[in-house]
Amino acid sequence: MPDPVLKGKVALVTGAAGTMGLAAVRGLLADGCKVAMVDIDRARNEALAWELGPDAQAFSFDISDAETAHRGHARVAEAMGPVDILLNNAGVLSNNKAEATGPAEWRRVLGANLDGAFFLAQCVLPAMKERRFGRIINTCSLAAKTGGLTAGTAYSVSKGALTSLTFSLARELAPFGVTANGISPAYVKTPMVTEQLDEAQRQKLLKDIPVGRFCEPEEFAHVVRFLAAPLAGFITGEIVDLNGGLLMD
Question: What is the pTM of this model?
Fold first, then answer.
């Protein structure tokens, strides 16, 4: 059996207690990482980390607040060492279009989906640059390219901005051996699909997706593992579409 390709690396995964985050955590553990599981749901996150074993540790803090995010990262680094892989996966969905989006909802969605990714990237960059290795992977979305087929304005804008943040980080960090890439999934089997879309919406989507099914969380995790691997070091500033052919560009 081959050695784990990321043996000894420290990964920080946000939204780790959710469907996609947990799939990524399991995959990174299988590849030999030690994983800091960050999620706002403290009880669920701690229970999952305990089940996954000693290489997974739970941390709960609000990534959307700069000071709290920096303190949370410091706890991770103290407990586990410098972060080698950052998966900015935490996010919230809003289906409200522009006129129905209030200021509080706008700030809540951009805070969770964009601000937290920026704050944590700021935290991990110095050590990554010093060691001349790092992987920043952002969970973007098809909504960034389509304006939101079923998603709302705040969500679509937040993911578009996250895509631009990925490009900016990639350009800045390439000379230091640090890559920044995004994954742009569409309609993964999560509560966003199973609970926040009605049956008519789901059936219409299944007709529009050429492969005729929704994405499995493990398929998302597979792309995370690929982009995190040492042999992906020549890929940066890329947004990997994961949409079953729904959008081809």
Answer: 0.95
| Residues annotated catalytic, as ranges | 155
Tell me the helices (H) and strands (E) count for the chain, helix number first.
10, 7
Report how far residue 86's alpha carbon sits from residue 228's, in angstroms, rounded to the nearest whole number.
Answer: 9
Task: Out of 132-136, 213-217, 223-227, pick the least confident.
Answer: 213-217
In one-letter notation, the amino acid at residue 118 is: F
| CB-CB contact of 35 with 25 (8 Å) | yes
Continuous H helices in the chain: 19-30, 42-52, 66-80, 103-110, 116-131, 143-146, 153-173, 191-194, 199-208, 217-228
**Using 50, 70 and 90 to split pLDDT, how confident is the model at 3?**
low
Per-residue CA distances from 155 to 78, 91, 95, 114, 136 (Å): 33, 9, 8, 10, 21
CA distances from 43 to 48, 58, 89 (A): 9, 10, 19
pLDDT (tens digit per residue) in 113-166: 999 999 999 999 999 999 999 999 999 999 898 887 778 999 999 999 999 999
Q: What are phi and psi of 59, to 5 degrees?
A: -140, 135
- Proportion of the chain above pLDDT 70, given as a percent: 97
Q: What's CA 171's distance to the chain center, in Å? A: 19
